[in-house]
Amino acid sequence: MILVGKIVINGGRRLSGEIKVQGSKNAVLPIIAACILCKDECVIYNCPDISDVRSACEIINHLGGMADLNDGILTVNTKNVERSEIPKELMNKMRSSVMFMGVLLGMTGGAALCTPGGCEIGARPVDIHIKALKMLGADVVEEGECISCYSKGLNGCKIHLEFPSVGATENAMMAAVTAKGTTVISNPALEPEIVELQNFINAMGGKISGAGTKTLVIEGTENLHGTEFEVRGDRIVAATYLFGVAGTGGNIRLNSVKAEDMEAVLSVLRETGCEIYANENSISVWSDGKLKSPKRVRTQVFPGFPTDAQAPLTSCLSVAHGTAVIHEEIFENRFRHVEELLKMGADIRLDNRVAVVCGVPCLYGANVVARELRGAGALCIAGLMAKGKTVMEGTEYLDRGYVNIEQALGMLGADIKREG
Ligand code: EPZ
Q1: CB-ligand 1 contact for 118 (6 Å cutoff)
Q2: Per-residue model confidence as pLDDT tens digits over 161-180
Q3: Which end of the chain has the least Cβ crowding within 10 Å, N or C?
Q4: What CATH number should be reported for the domain whose range is 25-230?
């Protein structure tokens, strides 16, 4: 990716204020794919205007549908979706386009796409997705990066996922809606985004139950209809901002986000000495900026500590008192922000999937480069915490998942602006 955009931050300021958290990227992306389950129009509210959503809309338009995002309202019309292949250039824009595979297979009898292999955070295989679709009756041919699936009709069955993969769960759910009979998925992902997808498909007339539990039941259903749906707040964007204010010190309130979606994050924040207040749809945090290191944090599948919040956590703990050992258990290459934090004065030692973070009194502004989405968020909050000026290259990564981060953080008192 060519990096031209820059964020400039003059750090060392406490954060305070109140903002609304954007809609969830990882909830809305599978929902966009699920719109193909009905030959109708769906309207999705609280949709974040981020490049991954724009990429998903490009795919819908390529397939013959219409997707239009305007001021947070996404209108998707899939009446004319007939194509079933996604070209490489669109797949390369967003790896998680693989989540169109199950719904295209079920609705058109085939799906042809390529998985552009590894990415900035890991190999990203799709073997679990493919096994689930084969169990539903698909023929799948893999040639290099290209995958072609065919079926003359899918049949409900029992599927056990060897790992509770979020994407594989979503692909299997959407394909199972189009199958004849009932599908039971054991060991599905439990993430809130799975619940969101269930609720969206049920709003279209689907019959899914058990999302968020160890057993998902999907009844094959025909003639789903369009619906309107509001996407919940983004728990990872919220976690990024909370770790930012923990590191700078201050007091912020985040609206439109559910504490129940992020208990593991809140628990670690409490361990560092932050005070947390949460109600139905907002979270407030107070920090004196003098943090205590939690001894150990392991990223895990939900409801464990989310891997997507690991990079912002690493930034935050780099100035905490004591030593924290962070285990990245989900992806094999997700510490790329560390080399940039070292340029800012952090004291972090890496050993494969483990980072040993020895807190330092403070970070110092530096020129840093983002290498992936959540690492970019982590470098932004490190810049907020640092003494002096930080220039971060790579807003292209940031914009994949954070809506106007400089505006959001600016509203909380940060001195942050975008250049280029
Ligand atoms: C989703 O990715 C999220 N993306 C990721 O968020 C998130 O990090 C991840 O879930 C884990 O929570 C979206 O929802 C769009 P997985 P996904 O399949 O579905 C291995 C962000 O920053 N695996 O649960 O790709 C895989 O290699 C992004 O917003 C297989 O081995 O994640 C990984 O090690 C990054 N075979 C682990 O499982 C498979 O067939 C978790 O992957 C599938 C996955």
Answers
A1: no
A2: 999 999 999 999 999 999 99
A3: C
A4: 3.65.10.10
